[in-house]
Predict the 3D structure of the following.
Amino acid sequence: MSANSEHKKYLKKQKLSTIKVIFSQIIILILFITIWQVLSDKGIINTFLCSSPKKVIETIISLWANNNLLMHVWATLKEILISFGIGTMIGIVFAAFLWWYPFASRVLDPYLTILNSLPKVSLGPIIIIWAGANQNSIILMALLISVISTIISVYVGFKNTNKTSIKLMQSFKSSKFQIFTKVILPSNINTIISSLKINLSMTFVGLLPPVGENLNSNKYCSKYLSHYL
């Protein structure tokens, strides 16, 4: 059998595998939505707290009919883009700083661990006081939730880069900047991409109810401001 036919067979196998994965994902999604709707109709779950697919669709149709859907989608999308962009930039730059200065990483390591374990949602009232009851408080909440995990995951990748490659560069009298750009960054592309996925999911957690967007609620603001002021 020729190499060309083997290659075609391999590509066909890969394509079939991809189709199976997508099909399985669609089936899981359909099953999830169906079970969700059945549980809602039977009253097994509280639709006030968990809603239902039917109510979600009705709400989307209602918002579209009132020309409010795109406004709400754009408001949330803008918050996601701003939070994700700033969080990613801060995370990668700060991780590079920690790699560049090992003394600073040793000093800041326990503080990063404490900040990462801090329940950010409990800081809601303080964030309102700092940033105000507006979009800024939502973005700040998303950043607090996502940026520390990004810093830690990217820095761990930088720190665990192949030591042999670094020593080889050092033997050729390469500068630290050259080591970082030629070895550290290229070796951690997958780590950075994985951290971006985590950062995006954590940004969603920080922005969407019941976390970030509740900070913009007048009821929420009045409740906590009256307690703390």
